[in-house]
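User: Can you predict the 3D structure for this chain?
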Amino acid sequence: MAIWLPDLSNRNGPKYLQIVEALAHDIATGRLPAGTRLPPHRELAYHLGLSPNTTSRAYAEAVKRALLKGEVGRGTFVRAASADPARAEPQTLCRTDSGPIDLSRNLPLPGLAEPHIRRVMSEIAREEGLRSLLDEQTDADLVRHREAGRMWLETCGVKADLDEVIPVIGGQHGILCILMALLQPGDLLLVEALTYTPVLAMAARLNIRTAAVAMDGEGVVPESFETWCRGANPKAFYLTPTLQAPTTITLSEARRSRIAHIADRYGVLLIEDDVFGPLKHDKPAPLARRTPETTLYVTSLSKTVAPGLRVGFLKTPRTFAPALHQSVNLSTWMTPPMTLEVAYRLIKEGTATTLTNDQRRAASRRQQLVGRVLGHDGIVASEGFHVWIPLPEGWRADAFCAECARLGVLVSEGRRFAMHGGDAPEAIRLCISHEPDEARLERGLTLLSGVLRQKPGGTPLMI
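Assistant: Here is the predicted structure, written as structure tokens:
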């Protein structure tokens, strides 16, 4: 039959749940008989114009609801209806009032900042200046907020003058503003072979071409970067040198120097995403310190202080500042003054740094928990909040993730981060931060450990 495409018209709610509801409808009406093979989630995402993460989450939810089953090495199929309603949902599902154990979202612990943000917001509410924060702001009005950005950049190891600091609504918005301001349709943007995939979606929307720079066990391969520079005339290279997602790799001083030298030699802009940088002890100097005139540096409080505090800062070479200001104005008119004010006060009084240190200690404690439960064989862990796990031979990442979802644990397959899905390793990324209850985290790791010990073989694993 032709590829199954769900009808999402007249459906509300999150897209992944709309897909699940359409799937349930098509199964109930007979459009999808038992045993029908569904398209790979990345293919479905392409046809629907959605992110692979959305369709992967939909398939995981459908497995949990016993609508689908996965078979290692074969794919995902419609499950036969059960005659016994009590058996309609797998009995091994981790049942909790708060749903599946979510190890798929790479966000800091959300609760640490709550009392501090509540206090700061109460202070703002009691002061005379609240009215001005509710009014339209110009760049001139945001001087103290840019000063907060300058202070935060300094804690990240980057020095900047005030006119080189651009406040944005988190790191993702900052990257979008850079692409809008400095690249033209048809320009070539290089990315790491495993990368932050929203950048690919942004580039596609802006008609910017993309290509992948090879990686090895130490991160970006400088020789691959130079090959692209010699033969393809790229405009920019987007990379995450510290605690790279998903691999956790931090580039060495030697590779950073080599990449900076190549970029300078060929006139390639570097877009340095350092949102995880503050979580690492003794990190190497940022690329922005090595090539300050050609590096756009991106940082954010959303990955180190609180996920919902959508405040980030760009450090830009002065020559690009006017274009970036225009890009911010075009995309959002102004970075919201209220959230900037909260960030300003947290940074100025030192609370943002304290909270980052608290997050770093929490990450260390949870990484130790990963080591105790999963061991270290083949697992690539670091100081941040995510872990990279190459899968045992015989496992396909999508089948592994579906089996984990059946047990009530959500993880991300490595293919989700690859520019070319066929080149992706059979690996998973798990995130250990956003589940606030460490007992739930430990249970999720224990369930995942059991799946890792399974040996896929001749008989397909039914999930």
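The first strand starts at residue 68 and ends at 71. The radius of gyration is 23 Å.
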